[in-house]
Amino acid sequence: MSALTSPRFSMRLLHSRPYHLTIALRPDVSGVRHWMDAVGAVVARLVGTPPRLTRRSYRSLVCAMIVVLHIQACAPTPSATPVAVVAAATLSPTLTPTPLVVAATATPTPTSTPTTPPAPILDSDLVWSAGFETGDLTELLDEGKGDFVRQGAGSFSLVTPHAHNGRYSVALTIDTASWSATGNHAAYLFYWNQLPEDEYYYSAWYYIPLGITPHDWWNVWQWKSTYDGNTDNSWPVFTLNPGRRSGVDLVHLLPGRELTVYRQQLASLPIERWFHIEAFYRRAKDESGQVIVWQDNQEIFNVSNVQTALADNTIYWSVNNYTDRITPDVCTIYVDDMAISRTRLGF
Questions:
Q1: 252 three-class SS
Q2: Which helix (H) or strand (E) segment is 58 a member of?
Q3: d(CA 118, CA 234)
Q4: C-alpha span between 119 and 112 (Å, rounded)
Q5: DSSP character for 296?
Q6: C-alpha separations of 336 from 44, 49, 102, 128 in Å
Q7: The dihedral of CA 120, 124, 129, 134: what is its sign?
Q8: Looking at the domain 123-341, which fold is it?
Q9: Domain boundaries, the chain
Q10: pTM, whole model, 2 decimals?
Q11: pLDDT digits (tens, 9 = 90+) for 123-147
Q12: How far apart are CA 104 and CA 117, in angstroms?
C-alpha cells in the first residue's frame, strides 16, 4: 500500500459518537507492535488518556482495527453515475465511408430468343422518307416521286395533333356507301419512282381505330407491277390484308394464276395505337424474289422463291385504305412516317 493511500474507516468508541480516523501507513512500518503503538496513540488522543489494556485486549483491539482497515480499504468508494472509460489509442483520420452495394440475386426468368435489332441506319442508306411535317404531301410529290390516288369515294387529309411522330399524319378515308364505277373505293399514297436496285426495305406507321370490320377483303399495303408499260394495267403482286381475322395476311397474286394467301398467328392486328410495318422486297421477274414482313419489329412473314415483278420489272409501292365493303361505310385510318431504305429501320 502506498504512503499516499489513506483508507477511511469509522469506529464507535466510548460515547457511541462516530469518529472518522485517517491513518497514513508508511511502507517501513511493520509488525504488530508498531500497529499497537499507532492504535494506542489514536485512542489516547480520542479519549484524552492512554488506555490501560492487557496484552490480550490490546491484541484483540489491534486485530479488530486491522480488519476494519482492511474492509474499508477494499470496499469500493461510492461513485456518481458511471462514466464510460475509453481506452486511449492513436486515432486515424476518419474517412467518408463508401456505401457497399450488394447485387441482389434473383431467380432468372426464362426468355425467348431476342430478335436482333436492326443496325443504325446511315443517311446514305435512307432512300426516301415522308413525315408530313410540312402539313401537305410535298415529300411525296417532290420530283414526281409519287402522289395521292383515289378510286371511288376515296380522300385524304393532313390531321394534327394525331400523329406517330411530330404534329401531322395522313388520314385516308373511304365511303363504301357511295357509288363507284369499279365497285371499289380506295385512298392511296403511291411512291412510283423507279429505283435502280432490286432490294429495298419499305416501312410505315399505322393507326387503326376501333370498330372497323371488312366484309371480305381489305388492302392496306401493296407492291404493284406492270407488264405492258401501261400503269393503268398495274397489278397488285403482293398485298397486306387485315381481313376479318385477328392478324394480317400476305396475299400473292399474279395474272392468270390463283391467288396465294399466307396466314400467320404470330401477331394480332393492333387497334387504337400506332404500330410499325416494315418489309424487305426483292424484285424478280422469275421465282428468285423474296418478301419478309415485320410487325412492330417481329418477323411475321418470310416468303422466298417467288415472283415479285411482272414483265416490265417495275415496282409501285403504296400504303392505302382499299376495299369494296367495310363497316362502318365511312372508314378512316391514319398513316405516318413512310420510308424506303437500303437497310432495316426498325422502330
A1: strand
A2: helix 55-74
A3: 32
A4: 21
A5: T
A6: 122, 126, 46, 14
A7: positive
A8: Jelly Rolls (2.60.120)
A9: 8-74, 123-341
A10: 0.66
A11: 679 999 999 999 999 999 999 999 9
A12: 29
